[in-house]
Specification:
The structure is a homodimer. By secondary structure, the first copy, chain A, is of the alpha+beta class. Strand 4 of chain A pairs antiparallel with strand 4 of chain B, so a sheet runs across the interface. Chain B binds a DNA duplex through helix 2, helix 3 and strand 3.
Chain lengths: ~180, ~180
DNA sequence: GTCGATCTATATCGGACCTATATAGATCAC
DNA sequence: GTGATCTATATAGGTCCGATATAGATCGAC
């Protein structure tokens, strides 16, 4: 899903600056299924403004840099809903860890164990992060999305805890050859 | 993980053309955790060749276009292993479906149900695809990776089957308001 | 006092990658 | 004959990322 559509979606939930939109990706639950960089957020917002889907006002604040607060227009809202009515792009999952596990036989057992340790730690942190945002104030949609993410992370952790010993046994056997 | 590294990894398993590498992403189990387009594979292979990590030979065949078959060099192999010894990039998961579910309240119940139908169908197809490649000839690494992917897809399907009724109930309640 | 880390903010450059398309030829079904 | 599908290589233009820049404030370590 393109960054312009993502920004429109976020703005249907309320006005925001480019910086705040990026923070949603880092702090709130969004990072688990969507993401965008400053390098794409700002051009996207500028373009949405040019196209009339978004309006912008500048605010100054004390001890802080000035802000540009973006609001979705009714045109923008309609466009966003229209995009949700079309077939959605398919999920994309990229996992360097999983790809690297295909080549575990090329690596020393200690490296493979280290990779597993690091990855499990990362997934546990993401899971904890998702739990920290499982607040009672969430909307139905947010509850669904949080639950979805948690289910996936739980499955990953279960799988890794279940199969780790086997992987390490294979590594040790292979290292003995 | 960048496409050059991915191509190097694939070539450690045997010589391949750019087209075959792309087919691995579509037909074999790779699509579940890694992907690259022709637009990036060919420039990557050309660059790897220029840099001495890969060598190329041209082959002609009957009734088929000529092929360029790429082989990894020992320099390339060392470079690939070196990249696996460094910290790996983190996973990236992008799901337009999950993002769209945050805005289910903006949509008619029939659209949300349709989205769920389509997504479940997609995940079921991916799961079936992964099963079709669960052959006895798989390496240990491939078995691990297949098992990982299946665990994730099972978790997703379980979650969706479990929560679908609830989502649709919320949609119906909201549509009645 | 200085430096680095961290934070709030906006902005952008150059490289990486994707989508769509092009070229080429073969086979098959309508 | 046309379109779909397949084997193959190739690339232009658009999108996005990572790194960086600018600006200023606060805090902690040296």
């Amino acid at each position: 899903m393109d960054v312009r559509t993502i920004c429109l979606g976020i703005l249907t939930h309320g006005d925001a600056t480019g910086y705040e939109i990026k923070k949603l990706f880092e702090d709130d639950g969004y990072q688990h299924f969507v993401e965008a960089s400053f390098g794409s957020i700002y051009p996207a917002l500028n373009r949405l403004t040019d196209e009339g889907y978004v309006s912008v006002r500048e605010e100054s604040q004390e001890k802080r840099p000035d802000r540009k607060v973006y609001s979705i227009t009714s045109t923008g809202r309609s466009a966003f809903i229209a995009s949700l009515l079309k077939p959605l792009p398919e999920d994309r999952h990229r996992s360097p860890f999983v790809f690297a596990m295909l080549f575990a036989d090329l690596l020393p057992p200690s490296r493979v164990s280290g990779m597993l340790d690091t990855y499990i730690e990362q997934v546990e942190q993401k899971f904890a992060h998702l739990n920290a945002h499982h607040a009672a104030s969430q909307s139905d949609g947010e509850k669904f999305v949080s639950g979805f993410g948690r289910a996936v992370y739980v499955a990953i952790l279960d799988f890794l805890h279940t199969h780790r010993a086997e992987v390490e046994k294979q590594q040790a056997a292979q290292a003995a050859e």
